[in-house]
Amino acid sequence: MSPKPKPTPTPDDAPPPSTLQKLKNLDPRNGLGIYLTHPSTNPESRVISFDNDFVLIRDKFPKASVHLLLMPRREEFYFQHPLKLLSTDAAFLADVTRRVEEVKRLAARELARLFGGVSAQDKVYHNALDKLMSKTDTPTKEQLSALPQGRDWSRDIIAGVHTHPSMNHMHIHVFSRDMHSECMKHKKHYLSFNSSFLVRMEEFPLEEGSERFKPGDWPKWDMKCWRCGENYGNRFKRLKEHLEEEFGEWVKE
Fold this sequence. Notes:
Shape: globular
CATH topology: HIT family, subunit A
Structural class: alpha+beta
Strand order of the largest sheet: 1-2-3-5-4-6
Strand content: 5-15%
Number of helices: 8
CATH architecture: 2-Layer Sandwich
CATH class: Alpha Beta
Helix content: 25-40%
Number of strands: 8
Largest sheet: 6 strands, antiparallel
């Protein structure tokens, strides 16, 4: 059953900034709350879209070239554990899965915008399109469908939740797998998105008693390159250098 729609807040509904900051200061882990209750004010210009059911924002400290957060707006979902909620509420899982697919397509288009100009796969498509357009201003559907496929950027988009989220409000991470970001600063950052500490959306629902609810001593796990699989153990600085090299090769695929 779909949730009962709630009126969308307007800027006039928002408390003054000083009050918002005080509410956030009560617990820094509640920092996402403002985007759920007053998305129309677009706090910190991070809100991409919102409706009565979900809010989509840019992560304040992105760990990849594209890093978005999808958050449900029904208050009953705010502080529930994501693994439990997504494993026990089939209707909610279906709603989230449908919305996540939309966000993944949006994220893929953003990757294409950012890096399509240097991607070899995209270059083949655009060259063929330019050649076609030079012959006709109104290509047919058949002509367009015959063009070589460009790069499928959606293959590089991941969606999931953390076993132990760093923020209190329920949120789903949707991000590009490149791990190219100045905010990727230490081992925990990397492992939280490149180990079983992240439960991907396609893994839900989890079975009751699944080991995924207890990740173990994950901060001590070895770091492995997301692209080539090389094991860097605890050598984060070396991994960071390697990730830069991998990023350069990845965007050119």
